[in-house]
Amino acid sequence: MTNRIAEGARRKPRTKRLRKLRTSIAEKGLDALLLSQPENLRYLSGFTGSSGWLLISGQNVILATDFRYMEQAKDESPDFEIIQTKRELRDWLPGLVSDLGWHKLGFETNSTSYEFYHKLSEAIKARQVNLDLVPTTGIVEQLRSIKEPEELGFIKKAVELVDAVFEQAKTIIRPGITEKEAAWEIEKILRQEGSEGMPFEIIMASGPNSALPHARPTEKIIRSGEPVLIDMGARISGYCSDFSRTLLLGKADKTLQKIYNIVLKAQTTAIEGVESGMDASQADQLARSVVEQAGYGDAFGHGLGHGVGLAVHESPRLGPSSSDSLADGMVFTIEPGIYLAGQGGIRIEDMVVLENGKAKVLSKAKGK
Amino acid sequence: MTNRIAEGARRKPRTKRLRKLRTSIAEKGLDALLLSQPENLRYLSGFTGSSGWLLISGQNVILATDFRYMEQAKDESPDFEIIQTKRELRDWLPGLVSDLGWHKLGFETNSTSYEFYHKLSEAIKARQVNLDLVPTTGIVEQLRSIKEPEELGFIKKAVELVDAVFEQAKTIIRPGITEKEAAWEIEKILRQEGSEGMPFEIIMASGPNSALPHARPTEKIIRSGEPVLIDMGARISGYCSDFSRTLLLGKADKTLQKIYNIVLKAQTTAIEGVESGMDASQADQLARSVVEQAGYGDAFGHGLGHGVGLAVHESPRLGPSSSDSLADGMVFTIEPGIYLAGQGGIRIEDMVVLENGKAKVLSKAKGK
Question: Which of its termini does chain A have fewer beta carbons within 10 Å around, N or C?
Answer without folding.
Answer: N
